[in-house]
Amino acid sequence: MPTAVISDIHGNAEALRSVLSDIDARSVGRIICLGDIIGYGPEPLQCVDLVRQRCEWSLMGNHDFGVLYEPTNFNPGAESAAYWTREQFDAEPDEALRAERYDFLGHLRVRVVEPAPGGQFPVLAVHGSPRRPINEYIFPDDAMTSPDKLESIFERVDRLCLVGHTHQPGVFTDEPDFYPPAELGENREYRFVDGEKAVINVGSVGQPRDLDPRASYAILHEDRVEFVRVEYDIKKTADQIKAISELHDWLGERLYEGR
Ligand code: ZN
Q: Could you tell me which of 121, 186, 190, 201 has the fewest CB atoms within 10 Å of its CB?
């Protein structure tokens, strides 16, 4: 059965609910999450609860880490959002639920290897990169400007690696090259090629940064990966952000532009 891969929800429950409905309307067997469930957005508790209910597993992203432990290398806006998010978890009046959520965050893994849907090869999943699973960005430009970096990353990939973190969906091949979904034909899909390694960025559910404001996720099939975009009520999320003083207005404004 195909696997839906979501990432970088960032407390945007409105986007997450739309993505989950889209997934439910397709024949997808399971959902996995590459991390950054929280941070930036106005509904972190709802997002954690939905991921706990709907995903088979989730990884630890740098924002999940930042809320649970401490924000490292965060800009002031991200840091303030992390502290506000932590307050929401602490303010849960139901003691058991509060403990369950922290327990869930505390047990997020930083790297998972599992068989591809067809079982033909292993798939590595990390939030950032195979070298530094929580924090390293693999940028689309790296294919052109940092071939050594990509070579070192591909040395750590057997065949297929799933990542998030940059919020920019697409496929890195070991040429190295980068293909955004728009360059993958009208079906926006990458078919696995024998002998070719690929790092697949599934994009962001809750804060896309590729100038397409629709929520992004991917579906891993036996022979290919398919990139999907889903419209959601951006204004609802942006207005919620505006109403919370600890969350900078820009965090809502950027959602309209997908940047
Ligand atoms: Zn993120």
A: 186
